[in-house]
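Model it.
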Amino acid sequence: MDAMTIRYGAIVDGKRGAYGVVIPDLPGCTAMGKTIDEALANAASAATAWAMVAKADGTPIPKARPIEILRRDPEVIAEIAEGGTLVIVPLLLDAGRPVKANLSLDAGLLEAIDEAAKAHGLTRSAFITSAAREKIARGA
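Modeled.
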């Protein structure tokens, strides 16, 4: 399977300090966080973990329903009526094989990346991979 990102509709509920996220298209996939940002980041991690277990079990990963269809789901309607908010959670699936990429970066940025990678005990590639995953998980 090639690496890909699937974007699932999810519902955030809760009150300040205790947010929960449910991804209806991934049965049983939930996450929590003290802030909405933390809950969404945890939901992205939970979706990846859910998919890895499904893949190992030979279970197909469900397609994400379009938001328009998800909004018509009676369970989603009920969650939103109770104060839930519909959001998007990315699922990033790795291909399982590294590839080389030739990138053009500003020399000053590359130096900053190398310094930050060293401070975190990472290689340049691992640091850039980590930063990209975080950015994708935040949806930014």
